[in-house]
Design brief:
The complex is a heterodimer.
Chain A lengths: L8 H32 L15 H26 L10 E8 L2 E6 L3 E3 L2 E4 L4 E7 L4 E5 L4 E5 L5 E5 L5 E6 L12 E7 L1 H10 L10 H8 L25 E6 L2 E6 L2 H9 L4 E3 L16 H13 L2
Parallel strand pairs in A: 1-5, 4-10
Antiparallel strand pairs in A: 1-2, 2-3, 5-8, 6-7, 9-10, 11-12, 11-13
Helix pairs in contact in A: 1-2, 4-6
Chain B lengths: L23 H4 L4 H29 L10 H20 L2 H14 L8 H23 L15 H4 L4 H28 L12 H33 L12 H35 L6 H15 L14 H29 L8 H24 L1 H7 L3 H31 L1 E2 L2 H28 L13 H31 L1 E2 L38
Antiparallel strand pairs in B: 1-2
Helix pairs in contact in B: 2-3, 2-4, 2-5, 2-16, 3-5, 4-7, 4-8, 4-9, 4-14, 5-7, 7-8, 8-9, 8-10, 9-10, 9-11, 9-12, 9-14, 10-11, 11-12, 12-14, 12-15, 14-15, 15-16
The chains are: A alpha+beta, B mainly alpha.
Chain lengths: ~300, ~525
């Protein structure tokens, strides 16, 4: 009756069926009573209303029974939930890094992947790390969800029980591309997992460029790619020195991207908006990016023009 | 008053000539009935703007990927939809419109305790609403945070968050002052002989609501100020890179915003409690239980906010504590449902439009309430939290509950407010279309929510499309029903037949005075000797 995708499916779905069952019972009974009364005691039948005295016993009954039922439903929910907070000590650990609007999974030995590949039947503890705002780590088939909160060590754990691919979603609203922040959980045999892990590359060392480091530190690559790819803002590739069309106070004009324009785009990003890109997405980095860093950024941008 | 004689000539509040003329007789009105109508016109306008925004979202979601708008526009649309509907429609809705109009009449008073403060509350409401609209038009672009303003996204996005939060801050004062006014009115202005326990149940519900408005709203006020401070001065309340805590924002936000749900639903329950005895011609069953359960819901409702945050990384202790209290707060709501249905037993039931809305309220409220149990249970919450299941759940409560109660109230009290009657047949047809459209719109969202469709998604995997299409079709049906309903009411107000003083044979005080009421409601002060729901 229950799927075996993770070790929590049983507990969650049991609580789900019990609570839904009780709810449906009340919904159907009460609705049926309403309809029955409306038909039976309809004014058209011409029978005057009968005034009825309150019956304390009846009232106590319908306070007590729902009270017992809700306490029972609370208990069933708690039973299904509490194992989710008891990760085994020897569980394999993986980092899930949420960043606008992409998941990265980091394995032991600094190896990174875009999909979460895991061996079947092995407990895994996922440490949830956010590089910017709130995100949510949600794998519906596994019945797990935990928010990814910056600077807070939230975690989730589970034992996968079925081979295959499962959807992973970000569930806490995180900005313009929130709905594109999805990934795949791939459950494979231990053998396949070992093979896959062996081929996984280590994280590339950061490019040894000071300007690049400034851009990365401030999260600029979230919206501006460095390979010409289209994202929220214009790509940095071939930007410097190019002629672009911008909208200034609603009127469009052409300008050549120079150091002054780069600096003004950092301090007052909404002043001259590159045509085709939305206004108001980027905040001002005035005071956040230091004056001495402007030159480093410009040097880096020149290097990829 | 004519020549000091004891007989006062009857002039309806709509025709009464006061100090001001024309439009100013409304803008500067202190009459609780005129203020109630002013709120109603504004709120219905905002409701339709919000509904159109909702429909735009449904069109966008009819297929995965971009359909009619870009992601940033979509995010702005659901944010504005939320801010409008929550802060400008459902929170003020019933208490500002029907509370203002009928609270004084139901307790046998001439007006609220502080009529000028009441007028001031209305002005604040309009000022806040103008600010909310302005936040859409200013140069940094419409806010894109969702109505929840979660930090640290809300502290870092480049859009107009400050204006939007300032609007919510200002709107909060309107709510606080209205609550204060109602509490004092209920304590001070009841007619001779009206004790708390023979006060009608709509005032009881408003009383419980007013305490929430008074006590909880300041918390959202200070929270939004902190958010504004964070954006302007990088103080470090909520942004972890400055040493703040994003969970602090969530706690503060929900300490208000959960009780705010009861600000919406308690008056709705109060309306239903007035309508059912009238159309059953029967004394309400369990008067005291209903009155006290309003207070119980208001009281316990203050302590359940954490159920919005089970997955935020709260401690295990907090998770079970909030879950337990959440389940307990379900009981007083269940008691009310039992009492309503028991009132129908052996009644003489007249299925008129207000009663149809009341019946469908009960049905939708049971669905909304019991799906709340799945959200309140920690195990199932993990699956459905932040999915479209939550969206469906709160639309069943807020729209199916508060919205349908608003429609019930407007059809119930319409003849009293305007002295005219709308067309029953057209009202019934509109009800049918609305009820069908509503369920088509929101029920499929429960299903895809359970399957994992996250909320606030511009794009979605193809397996959810069938349900999304059904939901979008429901949206169109619902909106067409709403248009028919409003058209029928406007026709009623303009050309409807004159309504008698007591068209439904109601027992409460508002039905004992002419339709529409005179400026001071009662020619002579009523003296209360019996229970408000007394039928022979």
């Amino acid at each position: 009756m229950f799927s075996n995708a993770s070790n929590f499916v049983h507990g969650v779905d049991l609580a789900f069926f019990i609570i839904t069952g009780i709810s449906l019972f009340f919904l159907i009974t009460l609705t049926a009573m309403m309809i029955f009364f409306v038909v039976k005691y309809n004014k058209k039948k011409g029978i005057p209303a009968v005034q009825i005295k309150n019956n304390s016993l009846l009232e106590i009954t319908w306070i007590t029974i729902p009270m017992i039922l809700v306490l029972y439903m609370f208990y069933i929910g708690w039973e299904g939930f509490i194992p989710m907070r008891q990760a085994p000590k020897d569980a394999m650990e993986v980092k899930a890094i949420g960043q606008m609007w992409k998941w990265t999974f980091e394995y032991k030995g600094n190896k990174q992947s875009d999909t979460l590949v895991l061996p079947i039947h092995k407990a895994v503890k996922v440490n949830l790390i956010s590089k910017d705002v709130l995100h949510g780590f949600f794998i519906p088939s596994f019945r797990i969800k935990e928010d990814v909160v910056p600077q807070k060590n939230n975690y989730s754990w589970f034992i996968p029980g079925e081979l295959g691919d499962f959807d992973l979603y970000c569930t806490v609203y995180c900005g313009v591309n929130h709905s594109f922040m999805t990934s795949i959980v791939r459950i494979v045999s231990q053998n396949d997992y070992d093979k896959w892990l062996a081929t996984l590359n280590e994280k590339k060392p950061d490019i040894d460029n000071k300007g690049y480091k400034v851009l990365e530190k401030n999260g600029c690559f979230t919206c501006h790619t460095k390979d010409g790819g289209k994202s929220v803002g214009p790509s940095f590739e071939s930007l410097y020195g190019s002629t672009i069309e911008v909208a200034t106070n609603g009127t469009s004009r052409k300008l050549v991207v120079d150091s002054a324009y780069i600096v003004s785009s950092i301090i007052d990003p909404n002043k001259d908006i590159a045509v085709g890109y939305p206004q108001g997405i980027m905040k001002s980095y005035k005071g956040i990016v230091k004056e001495e860093e402007f030159k480093l950024i410009n040097d880096y941008l020149k290097s990829i023009k | 008053m004519s020549n000091g004689t004891s007989k006062i000539e009857y002039v309806s509040y709509l025709e009464h000539q006061g100090k001001y003329e024309g439009i100013f007789s409304w803008i500067f009105a202190t009459d609780h009935k005129r203020i109630g109508l002013l709120y109603m016109y504004a709120i219905i306008t905002f409701f339709f703007i919000g509904a159109i925004l909702g429909l735009l979202m449904k069109i966008e979601l009819i297929a995965p990927g971009e359909t009619i708008m870009k992601p940033q526009v979509y995010n702005g649309v659901f944010t504005l939809h939320g801010i409008l509907m929550i802060f400008m429609v459902v929170i003020p809705g019933l208490s500002a419109v029907f509370g203002n109009f009928f609270l004084p009449i139901l307790i046998g008073a001439k007006d609220v305790s502080f009529p000028k403060l009441n007028r001031f509350s209305w002005w604040i409401f309009i000022a806040g609403s103008i600010m909310a609209v302005a936040s859409q038009l200013m140069k940094d672009g419409p806010p894109d945070t969702g109505w929840t303003f979660y930090a640290p996204y809300s502290t870092s996005t480049g859009t107009n968050v400050i204006m939007a939060t300032a609007a919510a801050f200002v709107l909060g004062f309107s709510s606080i002052l209205t609550g204060l006014n109602f509490i004092v009115t209920i304590h001070q202005m009841r007619a001779p002989g009206m004790k708390f326990f023979n006060m009608p149940l709509f005032p009881w519900a408003l009383y419980a609501t007013a305490w929430i408005q008074l006590l909880a709203t300041p918390i959202i006020g200070i929270t939004l100020l902190m958010l504004i401070g964070e954006r302007l001065f990088a103080i470090g309340f909520f942004d972890p890179t400055l040493g703040g805590d994003p969970l602090l924002f969530q706690h503060l936000f929900w300490i208000y915003s959960h009780p705010a749900v009861y600000v919406m639903i308690l008056p709705a329950m109060g309306v239903i409690t007035e309508i059912i005895p009238t159309f059953c011609q029967k004394q309400i069953y369990g008067y005291k239980a209903i009155a006290i359960s309003s207070l119980a819901i208001a009281g316990v409702g203050f302590l359940v906010w954490g159920h919005h945050m089970y997955t935020s990384g709260m401690s295990e202790n907090a998770r079970w504590f909030f879950s337990l209290l959440t389940f307990i707060v379900a009981v007083p709501s269940a008691i009310k449902v039992f009492n309503w249905i028991s009132t129908m037993y052996k009644g003489s039931i007249d299925v008129k439009p207000p009663f149809l809305y009341a019946l469908s309220f009960i049905f939708l409220f049971i669905i909304g309430g019991t799906t709340g149990l799945l959200l309140g249970s920690v195990a199932t919450n993990v699956q459905v939290h932040d999915t479209s299941f939550v969206v469906a759940h709160f639309h069943y409560i807020v729209f199916g509950g508060m919205g349908f109660a608003f429609f019930a109230a407007i059809h119930y009290w319409f003849p009293k407010m305007y002295g005219k009657m709308y067309d029953y047949k057209r009202a019934n047809i509109a009800w049918g279309i609305i009820f069908l459209g509503f369920n088509l719109l929101y029920f499929p969202q429960f299903i895809i929510g359970i399957e994992g469709m996250p909320r606030r998604y511009f794009d979605y995997p193809i397996q959810f499309q069938t349900s999304q299409i059904i939901s979008s079709i429901g949206g169109f049906i619902l909106v067409s029903g709403l248009i028919l309903m409003v058209f029928n009411l406007i026709q009623g107000a303009r050309k409807g037949k004159l309504a008698p003083a007591n068209p439904w044979n109601g027992s409460t005080l508002e039905w004992q005075i002419p339709s529409p009421p005179s400026l001071e409601n009662f020619d002579e002060e009523p003296v209360i000797k019996k229970n408000p729901y007394y039928y022979k």
